[in-house]
Amino acid sequence: MIFLYKSEAVRGNHWKAVFEEREPDLPFRIWPDVGDPALVKYMAVWLPPDDIATGYPNLEVLFSVGAGVDQLNLDLVPPNVKVVRMLDPSVPQIMAEFVTTAVLSLHCDVLTHMDQQQRGLWNPLLPEMAGSRRVGVLGLGQLGSLACKKLAYAGFKVAGWSRSRHEIEGIETFSGEGEFDAFLGRTDILVCLLPLTAETQGILNGELFAKLPRGAMLVNVGRGGHLDQDALLAALDSGQISGAVLDVTDPEPLPPDHPMWTHPRILLTPHIASSAQPGTSVEVILRNLDLLRAGKEPIGLIDRQRGY
Ligand code: NDP
After folding, report:
1. Is 223 an active-site residue?
2. Where does the record place the D-isomer specific 2-hydroxyacid dehydrogenase NAD-binding domain (predicted)?
3. How big is the CA angle at 76 (ends 196 and 284), to the nearest 5 degrees?
4. Domains 2-88+276-293 and 91-268 agree in fold
5. CB under 6 Å to ligand 1: residues?
6. What residues does each domain of the chain span?
7. In this structure, which topology does domain 91-268 adopt according to CATH?
8. Which of 25, 26, 55, 159 has the fewest CB neighbours in a 10 Å radius?
9. From residue 276, how far is each of 43, 194, 229 by CA, in Å?
10. How far apart are the first and last CA of the chain?
């Protein structure tokens, strides 16, 4: 039986060293050194091998090294294979720190000050308290719920929206299609922390922007596929949206001549809002192997129907 790893090398080498000590009977191989594919029982990947559907007849569990699974084409993964995302406890912490930074940057109008600095302008703008701003978080999962709490702690009026009803102390919560417009109507800074699924693809579009208060701002830390980038550029031109922090784009990276690179009202970061850490993520994998061997469900098991 083999544990096959196919992703970034630094993490792979760290995991391999830990496996050699803690799982001496489970050979840990790093792609492309697969060995006998028929012996691969577990696989951890960002992108799976092209022949995932047919090349690994005894594969039982496919671990995503990321918190999302949208990069895997689930239709190609045999239906009997469990798909498990990475629920590393450091990921929500780092994400909440990034989101708070992004929202505070928009709130403090860092984009205007950076633009003024470029142009040698000393033009003070009156600062406001965070409590004057209503932040709305799309997605109240592992990441969205902690981001809400940190934003509330920073002083913002925070609400969240999810598919099912959630209760989070100090946070106004909305759920489902029926409460979507009310959520958008009270949101000055919108944060996207949804998984990318067939239902959420392109959700950040012109229709949505029109339902936000005029001059609202956007933080997209979900996936590039959530955002209609042309609609954002049009909404920035019209003033309906007044600024955005985008950690994810489609494609990544954007083509060199894409207008979002140089737009004065967009701050781009290269998909770094959060990431699983080699040390904590290997512990999650080892814990999941224990659960699987005990016949229990692994932490982070994906509902293949829902897509997250
Ligand atoms: P979870 O699966 O824990 O939470 C997803 C949330 O989204 C849930 O609250 C869920 O609702 C809600 N949701 C899903 N589909 C819908 C829908 N159609 N309508 C309304 N609500 C919906 O995910 P995480 O919080 O762990 O992660 C969220 C995403 O963040 C990841 O999928 C990934 O894309 C992104 N990410 C980005 C990173 C970066 O560096 N930029 C790093 C890590 C993750 P319910 O609770 O009712 O199920």
Report:
1. yes
2. 102-273
3. 60
4. yes
5. 67-68, 91, 95, 139-144, 162-164, 193-197, 199-200, 221-223, 247-248, 271, 273-274, 308
6. 2-88+276-293, 91-268
7. Rossmann fold (3.40.50)
8. 25
9. 17, 18, 27
10. 28
What pLDDT does residue 76 have?
94
Q: Name the residue with tokens 């050699």.
A: 20
Class of domain 2-88+276-293: alpha beta
Annotated catalytic residue, options 113, 163, 166, 271: 271
d(CA 228, CA 174): 23
The single-letter code of the amino acid at 182 is A
| pLDDT value of residue 279 | 94
Which tens digits make up the pLDDT trace of 141-192?
Answer: 999 999 999 999 999 999 999 999 999 999 999 999 999 999 999 999 999 9
Cis bond leading into 264, ω under 30°?
no
Nearest atom, ligand 1, residue 221 CA: 41
**Distance (Å, rounded) from C-alpha 96 to C-alpha 100?**
6
- Report CA-CA distances (Å) from 243 to 137, 187, 214, 236, 253: 16, 14, 11, 7, 20
- Residue 186 designated active-site: no
pTM: 0.95
Ligand 1 atom at shortest distance from the alpha carbon of 223: 34
